Amino acid sequence: MKEKQSVKELQPYVVNPVVCSVKLDANEGNKDLFKDLIKDIGDDFYLNLYPDDNYTQLKEAIVNYIGCKIENISVGNGSSELLDLCVKTFVDTNELILSLDPTFSMYSIYAKIVNSRYIGAGEGNDFIINVDDVIKSIKENDPKLTIICNPNNPTGTIIKRDDVLRIVKSTDNVVIVDEAYMEFSNESVVDEIENYDNLIVVKTMSKAFSMAGIRTGYLIANEELVKTIEKVRPPYNLNSISALLATKALKQKDKMLSYVENLKVEREKIYEKLLDMGVKAYKSGANFVFFSSKVDNLAEKLIDNDVLIRKFGGKLDNYYRVTVGSPKENEAFLNAMKKIV
Ligand SMILES: *Cc1c(COP(=O)(O)O)cnc(C)c1O
Fold this sequence. Notes:
By secondary structure, the chain is of the alpha/beta class. It has eleven helices and 13 strands.
């Protein structure tokens, strides 16, 4: 094999191929929320044309949603592509990427691909992030790039806005705040991009807007940072159908907001019911609940009950993450749990 050394050592991001009728493993949203938009694609849409590489209409919809300028935005094929793009833009071989511990596993994979080093920091009691330790580690290690997932995946923990800004202030190098789940919380720093020349906020249509299938994400930063990232972005990286559907969905943010309000009620219900069963569950600011259980093969037992959740390994053995689904799905999960534990 002729792959480079860093790829030889890479473990793939594994997606569970098991099919269950109650699918609560990937933090996907409501399947019907923006389903009608597919019917509205219309006759003036042409498949032969490349997308508008400036993505002007989509960016205008983002401007309205976020309250920034068009020059503050880059769009990508999922926020995953934008995270990868930022790593390629800001980090060279052997330079350091710092993130939280535990956090979204893709960050370390992007780090390995470019032969950079990666460390996690800030592991506190009960997965509450120790912000002072994060800052201490930044001061000691001087990472070229820091990635803060807020709310954090997979734990659901929230870092307060002021603490996020303390982290941003602690370094001159770039800090990415991955706000994939921020619609389910209230600590966004997106309104601060003009105040910090090293702050990038990454967002997605995959979670609160329930459109993971169209692979659309965007980042918000000051104009200089965006210009730099745009040099690395491949042309036409987002397909035209996704750009159109995302544009239409962003114009209906009330629909998303009412979905989010209902989801939060369900989230608290799952959290409380798990505690009632004696399961150690963690307070979440996202669209999932993180918990631990000593029951052997819990995830497999749930699969036998036609419920799929996410289980973790290594340091997070015996830890699980369940997506907050529809009331019916959540009830199916809770009933299966009651049976098993
Ligand atoms: C789901 C998720 C995303 C979104 O990824 P997309 O590529 O936009 O679907 C980004 N970051 C984290 C931490 C996530 O959990």
